[in-house]
Amino acid sequence: MKKILLIILSFTAIINALEITPKNVKNANTSLIVLNQKNIQNPKLTFDKHNINFFPYPSKKESYYALIPVSYYKDKKAYRVIVSYFQNNKKIFKGITLNVIDGKYKSETINVPKGKVSLSPKNKKRVEKEYKEAMKIYNTVTPELYLNGAFIKPMNSKITSSFGKKRVYNNTLKSYHSGTDFKAAVGTKVKAVNDGIVVISQNRFYAGNSIVIDHGQGIYSCYFHLSKMNFKVGDRVKKSEIIGLSGSTGRVTGPHLHFAFRINGVQVDPLQAITLLNKNHLY
């Protein structure tokens, strides 16, 4: 009986040491893994063959966190997340299940100039170059966390197009809506959602005038189609500072703010990510 009790207590301790929120996550959403363990080194996790580092939990002692961004195109099924770390010179493994479920995103049809859908060789080359440059940035994980309190929204405005909608351009399915669109006339002020460092400040074919902020530890916020950009690459920006003005540059049908989020290089629902980070005091 005593042996059985010890096994039960040991199993309970393992479960409590590893937490996942949410356990059932929609495609293109983010899950938080929390590792509560003393005196450990080099904690890491593997999710579907992708390695992700843990960081010290900002508001919890002797705890670590990792963010798992789930791709929009990830297969809907159960995945085993494997966590490893060293303790007393011994490598320890733990596992927990993450269920990826269907986000059930809607579809929308958009009519745009033909040149913005069927690209000329020159524009195709430009798009490929801009994508490669951006992905190199998004896949960079800065060790420092720059956050200053909870995230805010980039503006208080009506959402005109939610994240994840299938985008049908001129009757051809091309992509999904990779951000959240806020209603904004040309010249509306756009706020930084938290502290960070500007890593992109340029005009791009699809996104138009773009500002991207690195918030540290793999978290990036993106602000597209601006009419004016107030910061350049390398500038430090504080939460609620006016980083630019909304506009209609790039591939758009009218003025608005396209707000997007990248975590560990993966495009995710920005509002779900912000809610998750704020709710769990990851700052």
Automatic annotation (TrEMBL):
Domain (M23ase beta-sheet core): residue spans on this chain: 176-270
Cited Gene3D superfamilies: Glucose Permease (Domain IIA)
Domain of life: Bacteria
GO molecular function per UniProt: metalloendopeptidase activity
Pfam families referenced in this protein's UniProt entry, alphabetically: Peptidase_M23
The protein's name: Peptidase M23
Organism name: Halarcobacter anaerophilus
